[in-house]
Amino acid sequence: MIPSFYRAAQKGKWEISVHDEDWSVNASLRWLRLVYDWYASNATGNTVIVIDGDDLINSPSFTSHLFASLRFDELHLQTSWEQKPDAFRADKGHMVNSFKSTLWDSTGIIRGKRRDYEIDVAAEQEKLREEFGGEVGSSMARYIDLAMGDYHYLRKRQFH
Asked: How many H-runs (helices) and E-runs (strands) does the chain carry?
């Protein structure tokens, strides 16, 4: 998540630095955890769930189970679509196009990427240092370490 955000921001011509005061917000799962905790402690008569995007992408049976549990009609589930034409993207700006390009270039769900829990964090952190250079890569690696506690906290609460 952290390196993907950084790459998309750079591609979108957004002035971004790991030294920005708001970088710690963008490179964190803390805010998602706080939102989850607030809803979990304030939900009356409702169950708060965490949905892992990897499960939605890679497991049609999980999606069916989720829809059934939520009493959603799978007839409304869209798994394919038409690619967005260049004319659609023309007035969206660099940032929006950068962050949505994978979706807009696709014609359906892109399966087969490895799941977050399968990633060797130490090896990925080394790749970040190679890709972005020592200072930026090391900063990203540090923020990944800081985010892992919140990642595992939310993962323990994910919908099955």
From this structure: 9, 0
Indicate the SS3 state at residue 116: helix
**12, 49, 69, 144, 152 from 157: Cα distances, Å:** 34, 7, 16, 20, 9
- From the list 31, 35, 27, the residue with the least C-alpha distance to 4 is 27
pTM: 0.78
Q: Say if CB 94 and CB 115 are below 8 A apart.
A: no
75-88: string of b/e by CB count within 10 Å (b at 16+)?
A: eeeeeeeeebeeee
Contact criterion met (CB below 8 Å) for 79 and 108: yes
CA dist 62 and 3 (Å) reads 27
CA distance 72 to 75: 9
Backbone angles phi, psi at 147, to 5 degrees: -80, -15
Rounded CA separation 160/96 (Å): 32
Confidence of residue 8 (pLDDT cuts 50, 70, 90): confident
